[in-house]
């Protein structure tokens, strides 16, 4: 999830390969050929979108979130801050606790409070355990594969560039995204009265507010698609699900099919709460990998903003922070290993497009994979080892995260930007 930054400076460039050009969706693009062959081998079908599917994809690139957008539109008819108060009251106490609630708010909460018939709470619990047991490696993959990879699609990354001050605000955005992830991947966290549910809805409203500000600015180029559109929002769900799993498996983690399907299911429900149309939400691992191919098939080329975003993320503070010389050295080592992981998993061409330095650290990750794989086999053979890992990593995360919030002064209430960069 790319939570928008806050700031007042902007570096905006226009991609020459915008989405409506015929090159988008061309199956002969080099990046698609190998993915298409692998998908056919694993799933026995062709993932490339048909003309009808391409038309539907383009339609979703021009769609916002009707229900959340209507709530944000409602804000202008209320005293400043009153709209957010109503949303918070409905989240905390239910829509029935509000006297004469606005129709837009009723419609939104009718959708999020209507638990889908396909929801499986056992799968949610399993997916949360999977998310915790991988420990710090999960953050590595989300930051240096999922977020970095998202920057390669220039159009989808434009909302971040519009709000500027990347160097100063990236650490805060990472912590805010981390707060969201921890909320929604806590066992039971997506219950109606729990923090995961509330965070998902608050982030949804924040995205709608940013979308309105971008459209009202007169600076948004619709050739990039609708800001924070449905297709890009579905792609963000993939970052936390299938891309997350793929990145972890690439460095030696083992997941059963049941665990992989559970993670896809978890993020299907989170996507539902965040306003992504069920029509395009993957319902299985195969659906998710097909959607990932289609996202790559419809992505536009990187541009100069890709490098700005990539370098900002690469230079963000590491988990090892301090003034002692050895802390600085360890921090630099962590930064180098992170860059190496991005180059290993995304390739050197993508690394160059992201402006990342070349480093031999990319060879560290395939070299350590057999050791990780071996430790995973031990975990699977020792009764109770998996749950022990889950509990240990949960405790560590709960102890360390508040300090990160304090250090970055992150806004964990998911309040949107107050003004666009100029």
TrEMBL record:
GO terms for molecular function: oxidoreductase activity. This is ER-bound oxygenase mpaB/mpaB'/Rubber oxygenase catalytic domain-containing protein. It comes from Ketobacter alkanivorans. The lineage of its organism: Bacteria, Pseudomonadati, Pseudomonadota, Gammaproteobacteria, Pseudomonadales. Residues 146-363 form the ER-bound oxygenase mpaB/mpaB'/Rubber oxygenase catalytic domain. It holds the Pfam family MPAB_Lcp_cat.
């Amino acid at each position: 999830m790319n939570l928008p930054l806050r700031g007042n400076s902007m570096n905006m460039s226009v991609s020459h390969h915008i989405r409506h050009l015929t090159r988008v969706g061309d199956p002969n693009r080099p990046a698609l050929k190998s993915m298409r062959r692998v998908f056919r081998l694993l799933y026995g079908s062709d993932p490339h979108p048909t003309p009808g599917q391409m038309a539907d994809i383009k339609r979703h690139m021009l769609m916002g979130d009707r229900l959340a957008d209507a709530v944000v539109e409602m804000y202008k008819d209320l005293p400043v801050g009153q709209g957010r108060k109503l949303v918070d009251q409905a989240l905390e106490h239910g829509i029935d606790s509000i006297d004469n609630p606005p129709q837009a708010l009723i419609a939104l909460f009718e959708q999020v409070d209507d638990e889908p018939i396909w929801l499986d709470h056992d799968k949610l619990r399993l997916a949360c355990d999977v998310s915790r047991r991988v420990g710090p490696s999960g953050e590595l993959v989300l930051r240096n594969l999922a977020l970095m990879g998202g920057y390669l699609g220039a159009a989808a990354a434009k909302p971040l560039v519009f709000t500027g001050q990347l160097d100063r605000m990236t650490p805060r955005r990472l912590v805010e995204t981390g707060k969201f992830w921890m909320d929604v991947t806590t066992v039971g966290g997506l219950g109606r009265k729990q923090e995961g549910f509330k965070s998902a809805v608050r982030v949804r409203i924040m995205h709608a507010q940013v979308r309105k500000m971008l459209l009202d600015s007169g600076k948004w180029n619709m050739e990039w698609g609708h800001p924070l559109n449905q297709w890009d929002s579905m792609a963000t769900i993939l970052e936390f699900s299938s891309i997350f799993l793929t990145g972890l498996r690439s460095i030696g983690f083992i997941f059963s099919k049941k665990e992989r399907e559970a993670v896809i299911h978890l993020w299907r429900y989170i996507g539902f709460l965040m306003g992504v149309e069920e029509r395009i939400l993957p319902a299985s691992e195969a659906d998710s990998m097909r959607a990932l191919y289609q996202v790559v098939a419809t992505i536009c080329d990187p541009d100069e903003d890709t490098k700005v975003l990539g370098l900002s993320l690469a230079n963000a503070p590491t988990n090892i922070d301090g003034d002692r010389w050895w802390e600085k050295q360890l921090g630099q080592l962590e930064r180098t290993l992170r860059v190496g992981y991005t180059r290993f998993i995304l390739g050197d061409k993508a690394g160059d497009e992201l402006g990342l330095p070349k480093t031999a650290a990319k060879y560290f990750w395939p070299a350590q994979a057999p050791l990780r794989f071996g430790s995973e086999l031990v975990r699977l053979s020792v009764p109770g080892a998996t749950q022990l890992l889950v509990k240990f990593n949960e405790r560590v995360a709960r102890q360390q995260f508040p300090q990160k919030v304090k250090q970055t002064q992150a806004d964990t209430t998911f309040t949107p930007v107050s003004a666009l960069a100029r």
